[in-house]
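Our preliminary data section would be incomplete without showing what the modeling component actually yields. Below, a chain of 119 amino acids is followed by its predicted structure, encoded as tokens that our downstream tools consume directly.
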Amino acid sequence: DLDVSDATFSTRFHENYNNIGNSSGTTNINLTTGNNFRINRTGNITITITNAPSGPRSMGFTLVLEDGQPGATVSWPASIQWANGAAPTLTTGGKDILVFYTYDGGTTYYGFLSANNIS
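Predicted structure:
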């Protein structure tokens, strides 16, 4: 029997990485496949996010977004609320790291630019 009435802590912690790789067009971030993702834009992309855990469970994930086609645009889901009220300006021809968080089953995501122009 497993008693989960008290806090349980793990001495080991890992996150799952999913390299989506080169992408253009509609690009899906499937949250059942990881919580760390990499996308290399080879053209304009439209991001979709699927399979967030249902509330009241929360989930955060990190996205490394590379611009393999300098100037390729990103269209984000309307469900993302950005820090300062606007999607960040991404690095042209570079690499940016973004962090997202949801606690309501993906109805709303909170998005933050963690670092830009990583080299």
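The mean pLDDT is 90. The chain is about 0% helix and 50% strand. Preliminary results of this kind motivate Aim 1 of the renewal.
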